[in-house]
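Troubleshooting entry. The earlier prediction with zinc ion gave an output that would not parse, so I re-checked the input for stray whitespace and re-submitted. Clean input:
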Amino acid sequence: MPLYEFRCPNCSSFDAFYPMTDAPDSALCPTCQSPGRRRISAPNLSRTGSSAFKLIDSTKRSAAEPQVIDSRLPGSPSRTTGRITSNPLHQKLPRP
Ligand SMILES: [Zn+2]
């Protein structure tokens, strides 16, 4: 949910969270209860260093750039164990 900035005519500006689809053009000031108009402001980048954003970034990065694994997990079968499938059509597939 994005953070929107409003300017109160009597006080200073205040921030409020609203869903993107329901962002009002004005909101009541929490201090004096007068309607404040929504301002066009820069996106809230102060959270980019938080652990939540690091998790989101690593999740997005793993979808596009998966980490290369250079060793197998302990206990996992090796690649030369034998045939994995018994389907004869798989015999025609290229070998690595
Ligand atoms: Zn106010």
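This one parsed fine. The first strand starts at residue 3 and ends at 7.
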